[in-house]
Amino acid sequence: MFKEINIRDLKKSPVQMISDEWALLTAGSEQSFNTMTVSWGALGELWGKDVVICFVRPQRYTYEFMEKGDTFTLSFFDGEYKKELGICGSKSGRDCDKMKETGFVPVKAGNGVSFEQAHTVIVCKKIAYQDMSEDGFLSQDIKNNYSNGDYHRTYVGEIQKVLVKE
Ligand SMILES: Cc1cc2nc3c(=O)[nH]c(=O)nc-3n(C[C@H](O)[C@H](O)[C@H](O)COP(=O)(O)O)c2cc1C
User: Fold this and answer.
1) Alpha carbon nearest to ligand 1 atom 5, residue
2) CATH (domain of 87)
3) Which residues, 6 or more positions from 153, have their beta carbon under 8 angstroms from its beta carbon?
């Protein structure tokens, strides 16, 4: 159902995929995982490796799974699933069953978890993290994102596999 491709053969701009179309960030195992919508992130190179960089606030349930495991996935969907992505981005897995609410069907993807409905999945191995702090923010505009002091934890994931729907 999915075939593996090289990250360099992605058909779309990563900016369009993450920023405009959004993605699901999923961490954990098939037995126990959580997923949430993200639209802030980056794909590129760091330390000589192809990487995904994503940003997770500490209060997210997904954060707990990001901390526990060493694999995470980014899953991308066609526009018809924007409503479901809205649900995964507004409700917490602590309070509801996102699979029941969206109809997304979990599937194994490399060492991680993705969804049958995804058109593209990037499987990553967590290789680094770092918490943001206000010291480096150069404008009030950026500081305004953190009026609660809930600075994102930045996760760097080395890309292990890129899977696309056949
Ligand atoms: C379009 C969109 C993008 C989002 N991007 C992020 C993000 O990059 N980082 C983050 O921590 N939260 C982000 N969120 C918020 C989480 O998806 C949201 O708080 C979610 O309910 C967390 O679920 P959880 O508690 O089950 O982990 C985004 C929400 C939406 C709707």
Assistant:
1) 38
2) 2.30.110.10
3) 55, 56, 57, 58, 63, 66, 129, 130, 131, 132
